[in-house]
Write a structure and sequence with these properties.
By secondary structure, the chain is α/β, with parallel strands linked by helices. It has 15 helices and 11 strands. The longest helix has 18 residues.
Length: about 375
């Protein structure tokens, strides 16, 4: 059976990078005018040659987003359940080598966090953990059963699991799974992941197959922008997206854009990415795929988020705390990273409303069905 692992092995990283960098202004113009975008068009939209066309791309991206999603922004908030991790990843504050306070929330602590989160208005929550046996499938299944009555949509961003484990969590209320390959550069992948299960590039990559077979409602993809050349990594992310859409066509998909942020440790990005380039990437995705959901987290600045959310983004986090107990307990535990946009959910809601958009606190499929029936 063909998998994406088979497909990616047919590509050479350096040759792909060279192909993207060689694109011309004519290639960009053809990509913008082509009604049926292919991977070569996406390369053109990612390329340095597309930078002079950014205003045109932004305008088109906005038009396509409004056509498909309307003036709605789905809001979500992460709940960090555990910062215990058995991996040694150089870029992450959860690195097991960081000798800082570790916490896995108890039922009582989780319910206290949820009380605060619900008071903000959220009905969509993202559960996040480090990768460890202390926050494995049994713990996650218990948490889902504990909180499922409080939320209309529950997502997770945790360690890769087996198909049967995903199926168990789905039966307990799981809706979406976000999993990041971090980088598709197989050779350099090992330089960032020194210890733990995450050192296995193939196992992580094959997780998307297990997710697709499990029948999960939505899968979120992305890479950590800053590890490797962002253009090349984004090409492989889009290639992966198209493969998954074709093979597991009943599942919905989203793409996130996590850029490296300050964290506990001394790792510095190997590849810098400006806000202008990030906007180019967001617009390139929207022009390439009108239906994919695009998510922007509090890793980005207030100024950037104020501008970018009307140009292609469909979901935003708000009021994020990146340590377990950050909302109600104030544990001062180890954070995964430092958010940049620290505005409250109410302030983000006001921002969205000020631009004539609707802030959606639940899954917008449900929201749109309700709207259509009225």
């Amino acid at each position: 059976m063909e998998t994406f692992n088979n497909i990616i092995n047919q590509y050479d990283w350096n040759a792909t990078q060279k192909s993207i960098l060689s694109k011309s202004s004519r290639d960009v113009e053809e990509a913008l005018s082509n009604p049926h975008k292919d991977m070569e068009d996406f390369k053109s939209l990612l390329s340095p040659a597309a930078i002079p066309y950014l205003e045109q791309m932004a305008k088109l991206s906005r038009q396509l987003t409004l056509k498909r999603f309307g003036k709605t922004i789905q809001l979500y908030i992460p709940l960090y359940l555990s910062n215990v991790c058995e991996n040694e990843c150089l870029y992450c504050g959860y690195n097991r080598a960081n000798a800082i306070k570790r916490i896995t929330l108890t039922d009582e602590e989780i319910l206290k966090e949820i009380e605060i989160i619900k008071s903000f208005g959220f009905r969509h929550i993202l559960l996040v953990t480090g990768e460890s046996r202390y926050a494995g499938v049994e713990y996650l299944n218990h948490v889902l059963q504990l909180i499922r009555s409080h939320f209309s949509l529950i997502s997770i961003e945790v360690q890769p699991l087996e198909q049967k484990e995903y199926e168990l969590l789905i039966s307990s209320g799981l809706n979406s799974v976000y999993l990041y390959q971090e980088t598709y550069n197989r050779i350099h992948y090992k330089n960032y992941h020194l210890f733990g299960k995450k050192t296995d590039f193939d196992f992580r990559l094959d997780t998307y197959e297990r997710l697709g077979r499990s029948g999960v409602h939505k899968i979120g993809l992305g890479v950590l922008l800053g590890l490797e050349d962002w253009r090349t990594d984004s090409f492989f992310t889009a290639l992966h997206l198209k493969y998954l859409q074709k093979r597991y066509w009943k599942t919905k998909y989203s793409v996130s854009f996590p850029r490296l942020r300050p964290h506990s440790g001394n790792f510095e990005p190997n590849c810098t990415m400006t806000e202008r380039e990030l906007l180019q990437l967001i617009c390139a995705y929207r022009i390439f795929d009108e239906d994919v959901e695009l998510s922007l987290s509090t890793r980005e600045s207030e100024k950037f988020r104020n501008h970018a959310f009307t140009l292609g983004i469909t979901a935003m986090s708000a009021g994020s705390k990146t340590e377990p107990g950050g909302y109600a307990i104030h544990s001062n535990a180890l954070k995964q990273f430092e958010p940049d946009d620290n505005r409250s959910p109410a302030e983000i809601k006001e921002l969205i409303l000020s631009q004539g958009y609707e802030a959606v606190w639940k899954d917008w499929d449900v929201y749109m069905q309700m709207t259509d029936s009225n």
